[in-house]
């Protein structure tokens, strides 16, 4: 048999459109942004400044206060998602996958609906509900005799960020639910039956049999949550504006990047510092993804059925 | 049959699920119900259904006369449909090349294209804007279509190539023996077989495009190119005290996605449970 073939042009034709668009619109601008962060403004053009922009961002109090504030807020935002969104998602998925549950399709469809809504709708409706003026929330708390618990949560520095994180959890809990649900369904019946024969049922079956089997899915969900959270912008922007009020209490890296790049109120936009912040975000996301890929994923035990 | 799915356990499961379903749907209910009520009724009884006295369409009238919502809606449709078309076509082609042929650099190309799943395209915004300014594409829908196509491709290629590995080789080889070209094998044999996977990818690609605020705000904020998401955001900003109008605008923005979701949801769930995203 002749192994020597003519050059297979069709492979190039199949790959070219995707590779070209992806490279031109995504990879080159990404590299361009990283590159831009190494330059500073100069008269009539730009000048190479090396890592000076990063020194400014991390060290100069005019920038670093805002940066570390945004980073700390972002970390808290992520922590709330990990502590609330993912456990709630797993719990809902576990309930949905219980055998012979009626109306499972209805619950699944309904619980996923917030995920498809745009941030504009989500941000605004929760502002309305939590508003002390219109007051669905105070009214409802009043009905159960807990009116004293109500506070303008979105307007207070101490509670605004947590409230917004919980709104975001409300919106996206459908994603971990769906992915875990799919993972739970893919556990073979024999495994479950074997567990039942050994007398492992109910709660202990979930903890001892199912949870170890869905750990890889939980790992993927965690890293997706991490990337999405450190890239978040829309919800804060639509509900608190680009200034991420009150007093920057809800400022995260995405809103900080937007303000820096485009300017706000009297401050002019600065593409170089904007690119520097984007590069810092790139670094943070890269570190997180690498920790997952090398430290967590390789240690997760995968089971083949 | 086992006795373990006892009555109390299933009542508890339903109880929790119903409670959470209510939490999930309550805000949507509040918006839609109140958009059909008069201003006074919105304030006095925000949770009541519209009755004959309180029913009022003033909000919808304001929205339709003030904002150019039909244009925004059309823009969103155009951007979403074109981006979706290119993501599915280019994505399927690349996925086919990666899953079907062995060639040097196959794994490397796959990894290169998968990079975009983890690294968000937003981080390149600064340079993307410069690129669009340089090519004169600012404030055009083309700019948005290009960006969303690039954004959607990595995940589409990843999911579709997993599926295409499952298409039987015998079928493709039979086609080759019958003298079909590689292009025909792809378009005539393989594409129809991966249609369920294409639907899953379509839903996952469509939702973030339709709902995106970042790129329309930065690349195409002009009146003629506003998408419905950006349009309703601006409208809310202007009409913040006109509650009827704001609630009506939000209702109008919810309906199209909701309809699309309900049409595709069965397909979406089938795609996920078939192992597309594991």
UniProtKB/TrEMBL annotation, chain A:
Its main location: membrane. InterPro entries: ABC_transporter_permease, MetI-like, MetI-like_sf. Residues 71-294 form the ABC transmembrane type-1 domain. The chain crosses the membrane at residues 12-31, 75-96, 105-126, 161-184, 213-236, 274-295. It is found in: Cell membrane. It is a multi-pass membrane protein. CDD domains: TM_PBP2. GO terms for biological process: transmembrane transport. GO terms for cellular component: plasma membrane. SUPFAM superfamilies: MetI-like (SSF161098). Belongs to the binding-protein-dependent transport system permease family. This is Sugar ABC transporter permease.
Automatic annotation (TrEMBL), chain B:
Signal peptide: none annotated. It comes from the Bacteria. It is found in: Cell membrane. Keywords: Cell membrane, Membrane, Transmembrane, Transmembrane helix, Transport. One of its GO terms (biological process) is transmembrane transport. Residues 73-264 form the ABC transmembrane type-1 domain. Pfam families: BPD_transp_1 (PF00528). The chain crosses the membrane at residues 12-33, 72-98, 110-133, 145-164, 185-210, 245-264. Coiled coil: none annotated. GO terms for cellular component: plasma membrane. It is a multi-pass membrane protein. Belongs to the binding-protein-dependent transport system permease family. This is Carbohydrate ABC transporter permease. It comes from Paracoccus caeni.
